[in-house]
Amino acid sequence: MIPRQHMAARLRPLVFITPTRCFSHASTCYAAQARASLSKFWVPTGGISETDHESGHAKLIRAGFLRQTQSGIFHLLPLGVRVQDKIAKMIDKHMEYIGASRLAMSSLTTEDLWRKSGRFENIASELFQLQDRKEMKFMLGPTHEEEITTLVASTLKSYKDLPIRLYQTTRKYRDEARPRQGLLRSREFIMKDMYSFDTTYEGAIEAYKDVSSAYRAIFAELKVPILIAEASSGDMGGDHSHEYHLTNDIGEDTVAHCKSCGYTANDEVAATRALTDTINPPTSADEFLVWRGITKDRKTLINAWYPLKNGENKGTNTHALKAAVSDLDTSITDPVSAWAEALASHPDAKLVNVLDYRLALSFDTFKAQLPILPANMTHSTPPTTSVTVSKDQPIDLLPITANDPCPRCADGTLSIHRALELGHTFYLGTRYSIPLEAYTTLPENPSEPVPLQMGCYGIGVSRILAAVAEHKADDKGLNWPRSIAPYEVIMIPTSTTTEEIDQLQDSLSETADVVIDDRKKAFGWKMQDADLTGYPVIVVIGKAWKTNKECEVQCRALGIKESVAAAALPEFVRKLLDQL
């Protein structure tokens, strides 16, 4: 039984509210509660001193976007989550445009599945591996080709269900030997990975083109300059591959680019026009330089013979060497000692000479004068020697360097750039569908199963966060593009907020993502923090507001600092943001 004195309160009319209006005269309105304010948003700043030549990663930490918990492992804090979520939503939009469906696969995958695909041995050292209580072997997935192929194979009923385009944006794991540069080379990361399944090669290439167009649109929306480079498929498999690079001096990749025709390639596959030029044979043994390496089984010493380039020792192209000697282990710093141990216990130990095409025809002439055996070896234990030369595919052991002739056009020369890889597209063909038994049948030949034609496509979400921070930061702080800024606009009042300031925020919020800094901090500290955080637009509400209702609008990226009347502010800010 409800007491009569409380009945009136229980029977009051319902109040309907929306994020922007309140349909009652109550003192507390949902619109006010929904206004974004830094006093209600956790941003752990302060206590970390600025360093000389501060990296973008260091600025992310100092501004309160993330914190490191272990080597290569990071907690993303609220500011970082907002940026990451905006990147993911942008990707969602463009994936929806090309008809991709989003799913979320388990982070756990099985060792058996990776052994079945043939990838386990090549990548085992980079996998986080674990066992359950029944001693079944699992791994934390770095990618999901095996799992997605098995899923589609088990659910596909007919060729009429194809094509299928599936993607996810989830955590991936890779046990990096040397995690570095924050989120750019971490052991746990967020990646968007998409997979396409078609019945024909033509359909798979059409999917590849659609994803490539979507990636171009994504990076255009980010407003960062991207080089799209021909690339190696590596352990992923397939024979059609492109990387999406942001040029930056801290990048770990090297990209060759021709401004004349647009040719762009990762240095793993980049070529020059030199192979068609006239060869000037060496005139002495001094023109033969050697780099030594060893195979993974430690039984074969590799002598890579290469010439000077423009009169200088430019070293060798290890990518070309790996193409010639697939089991070459370039991580060994002292291959001669490792091979010497193998000589004592393995009678089948041998030495292989890999010859740059410029030296191949003269090798036998100068062979007796060359240090075929390492200096600390004696001829009393000669190994078997063989020479690797291919007349059909001559080996170019020299690295690509600036001003090399472009292989695609007559007049162009190559420029060399350090770059950060943000995305990668692969045409896989039947690399996974055959070993994992993903087949369908077609009406023209229903008795003959056809393996699915596949593609896979990745974008590093957390890597984009770090790379854009690095690329756009200046001496004042981060400088986000509008599309992924934690907030597009920050309002900084010099005094406490008033109802008029609240109304101004509501007005700006109709077309922008706005936050107000109402923390109990000094005005100067707030301004420095806003610059460090990298908000695209800063609206200062100071003395001019009290006298004639004007604000000072600052946009560091466009070099703007201007007084604007309150009535004109929303349109002025909108036009600024359209340029960012």
Structural features, described:
The protein is α+β, with helices and mostly antiparallel strands and 580 residues long. The strands form six sheets. Strands 4, 8, 9, 10, 11, 12, 13, 19 and 22 form a nine-stranded mixed β-sheet that branches. Strands 1-24-23-25-26-27 form a six-stranded mixed β-sheet, sandwiched between helices. Helix 3 (56-62) crosses helix 12 (461-472). The protein has three domains: 78-109 and 144-270 and 415-470, Bira Bifunctional Protein, Domain 2 (BirA Bifunctional Protein, domain 2); 285-394, no CATH class; 487-579, Anticodon-binding domain (Rossmann fold). It contains 16 helices and 27 strands. It is globular. It is an enzyme of class 6 (ligase).
